[in-house]
Write a structure and sequence with these properties.
The complex is a heterodimer of chains A (about 425) and B (about 240). Chain A has about 425 residues and is of the alpha+beta class. In chain A, about 55% of the residues lie in helices and about 15% in strands. Chain A contains 14 helices and 10 strands. Chain A has a 6-stranded mixed beta barrel with strand order 2-3-8-5-7-6. In chain A, a hairpin with a 2-residue loop joins strand 2 and strand 3. Chain A is elongated. By secondary structure, chain B is of the alpha/beta class. Chain B contains 8 helices and 10 strands. In chain B, a hairpin with a 7-residue loop joins strand 1 and strand 2. Chain B is globular and about 50 Å long. Classes of the chains: A alpha+beta (about 425), B alpha/beta (about 240). The structure holds adenosine-5'-triphosphate and magnesium ion. The site of magnesium ion has 3 residues of chain B, from helix 2.
Chain lengths: ~425, ~240
């Protein structure tokens, strides 16, 4: 006969090993309470499906809007700083009251722009830089006259900001001296076609006559009615700024970092740098309002999922009171009882989320296939991982209160519970 | 002194009041002194309401005394925290309750394994063998995978006994283990406990209202109104 009191079992008491038991208990309890489990998981799944679908929809919509907006404009525009009035310094010890009018800003070249371009080219976050000279002019054909925005560009560099060749309606994207590309609206107004001549007058030099080599359509009326692209050299001559450029157009890798990058460039170069986000403040407002409402949906769905899980687990704790007491009598610690119910909460969240994500994929597929077809919504992997993590964390948090109640049960009272 | 060292359990002036600090406070156990040896097979008898279950809960470290001290395997337990009591309980106590308290979600075998799993996690093949052996010893090897609700009352109680013994406890506590069974089954279950007490060499303290069963025990402790009024040894 072996000694009764020296246990033959391994004396290991690793918490990890004990966690295995908590898992087994949690899984078995979930399987045992099948009705409850299925109900709450469907609830979680519906919540997660809504969150994932709405988030994907809004993200897809926003990406689409932003893409359309940025298709025809630079992410960041760098300009000369405004000229300020020059004032004599006030004598020491005096207080000076100044009433001044803002100075008229003449068209000036960016100082040392070649060097600035080289500096910006070297920046990690900047994908492309294009020097541009822009100024007003009249475009005429015969007696017809239209005011236009003369834009002198280096075509090769500018293509990386706005891919003009993608927007060509007629002709070919090229800008040799004496050639111009014009917008479709302007072409219609002036009755111009590729191969026709166009007179450009800036009021500073003798009017120039250029060949129309291409008609483009950016899809933005204002741009299509006013933009006239010339080679850099010719525009510089027409605007009386030989060798100068008035602005640098940039695109960056992370469009939503544009404002930060612009600030950095402004500090770096002592020039004005304006991001698309500032220029499209209204759009940004709309986008952030949308994001806010998506976040609200996420918060409220999470809350109701949390309350659902918490109430199901509370009922489950009550139903299992006696079993909890038995487990305690058999040597289960409070920690273990706590774990059993936390794991149940986590599993409600996780498994519900898996089902919900599958549901969201179906919804997105239906939308993409049978929806209005205005744009395509992708389901980003980050969103899926986020939903899984969120649901699991919500499950654990929701389980905290009932799990604690279970752990704190008095074993004597629990065992006698019927 | 050798007797003391040989003790599984020693009570010294143990008192228990319910609803302490409240107007309905009532002392149920009035200073008990008791010594249970390693091989005792003792019956705890007494009228209803005399405090037998209360005492068993205290001994099993499920509840805490109001005063006095309770030594389990020589360890004083009154100032132990919950984790300490849980550890000591898991190591040295086996419980059998009146209503075969099995966990319905688990098979008979898993119920028997549960105390080991709670202490060590995933059971080793050796542990599973041991649990199967115990089920066989209580005559239920065929029911290893059966859920408790498909077992008869007597069968369930036998599973509970196997479960209580799987950790090789030093002390087996049974609160009216046969109270819910017919005479014949009750005798069977009693015999099992008796046999295991001898074979495993653990002390047994068993609450019963059945005079035939208490007469069959080596020792009878009579508790009346929270006081031990007699403690007789029937084996010389
Ligand atoms: N949780 C409790 N709160 C207050 N009083 C209690 C509690 N549990 C038991 N009592 C009281 O303690 C006394 C002893 O109860 P206990 O259950 O220990 O008796 P018992 O000897 O086991 O009786 P029975 O043979 O009927 O099972 C009783 O008077 C009972 O009313
Ligand atoms: Mg009782």
């Amino acid at each position: 006969m072996n000694c009764p009191c020296s246990s033959t079992e391994r004396p290991v008491r690793s918490p990890v090993l004990k966690l295995w038991t908590a898992w087994v208990l949690a899984l078995q309890f979930l399987r045992d309470g099948r009705g409850q489990t299925v109900t709450i998981m469907v609830g979680v799944a519906v919540g997660v499906a809504v969150v994932v679908f709405v988030s994907a929809l809004i993200q897809g919509l926003q990406a689409n809007i932003v893409q359309r907006t940025l298709g025809t404009q630079a992410h960041i525009r760098v300009l000369s700083p405004d000229e300020l009035n020059l004032r004599p310094a006030s004598p020491a010890g005096t207080l000076q009251l100044v009433w001044e009018d803002k100075r008229a800003q003449r068209r000036r070249s960016i100082n040392n722009w070649q060097q600035v371009v080289a500096t910006l080219d070297a920046l990690q976050s900047v994908r492309a830089v294009s020097p541009v000279i822009a100024g007003p002019a009249f475009a005429g054909r015969g007696a017809a006259l239209e005011s236009v925005a003369l834009t002198g560009i280096d075509l090769l560099r500018y293509q990386r900001i706005i891919p003009l060749s993608d927007y060509i309606k007629e002709g070919r994207a090229r800008l040799e001296p004496g050639e111009a590309m014009i917008g479709s609206e302007l072409a219609t107004t002036l009755g111009l076609r590729v191969g026709d001549k166009l007179r450009l007058d800036t009021g500073r030099q003798n009017p120039a006559v250029v060949n129309v080599v291409a008609v483009f359509e950016l899809g933005v009326r204002e741009l299509d009615a006013r933009n006239v692209y010339l080679g850099l050299k010719q525009a510089q001559a027409l605007l009386s700024l030989p060798g100068g450029v008035t602005q640098l157009d940039l695109v960056v890798d992370d469009i939503f970092a544009a404002d930060r990058i612009a600030q950095r460039i402004a500090r770096l170069t002592a020039l004005q740098a304006e991001s698309w986000m500032e220029k499209n403040a209204q759009l940004m407002n709309a986008l952030s309002a949308q994001s806010l409402s998506t976040n609200m949906i996420i918060v409220f769905v999470s809350l109701s999922v949390a309350f659902g899980i918490a109430s199901v687990l509370s009922v489950s704790v009550v139903q299992r009171t006696r079993e909890i007491g038995i487990l305690r009598a058999m040597g289960a610690g409070r920690q273990q009882v706590l774990q059993v119910f936390l794991i149940q909460g986590a599993l409600y969240g996780l498994i519900g989320a898996l089902i919900g994500i599958a549901g969201a994929y179906v919804l997105v597929w239906v939308f993409n296939t049978f929806g209005p077809g205005l744009f395509y919504i992708p389901v980003p992997t980050t969103l899926v991982l986020f939903a899984l993590a969120l649901a699991t964390v919500v499950g654990v948090l929701a389980a905290a209160v009932p799990a604690r109640r279970a752990a704190m049960l008095d074993p004597v009272v629990a065992i006698r519970y019927v | 002194m050798s007797e003391m060292q040989d003790a599984v359990l020693r009570l010294a002036g143990l008192r228990k009041s319910y609803n302490e600090g409240r107007p309905n406070e009532a002392e149920v156990l009035h200073g008990l002194d008791l010594l249970i040896g390693r091989k005792d097979f003792a019956a705890l008898i007494g009228p209803s309401g005399s405090g037998k279950s209360t005492l068993l809960n205290l001994i099993g470290l499920l509840d805490q005394p109001s005063a006095g001290e309770l030594y389990l395997l020589g360890e004083p337990t009154r100032t132990m925290d919950d984790a300490g009591r849980t550890r000591l309980r898991g190591e040295s106590i086996g419980f059998v309750f009146q209503f075969h308290h099995l966990i319905q979600a688990f098979s008979a075998l898993d119920n028997v394994l549960m105390p080991l799993m709670l202490r060590h996690g995933r059971p080793s093949p050796g542990a599973v063998d041991r649990a199967r052996g115990l089920l066989a010893a209580v005559g239920l090897e065929k029911f290893a995978q059966t859920r408790p609700n498909q077992l008869s009352g007597g069968q369930q109680q036998r599973v509970a006994i196997a479960r209580a013994l799987v950790t090789e406890p030093a002390l087996l506590l049974a609160d009216e283990p046969t109270g819910n069974l017919d005479t014949h089954t009750a005798a069977e279950v009693f015999e099992l406990m008796r046999r295991f007490g001898r074979e495993a060499g653990c002390a047994v303290l068993l609450v019963t209202h059945d005079p035939r069963l208490s007469a069959a025990c080596d020792r009878t402790i009579d508790l009346v109104d929270g006081r031990i009024v007699s403690d007789t040894n029937s084996v010389a």
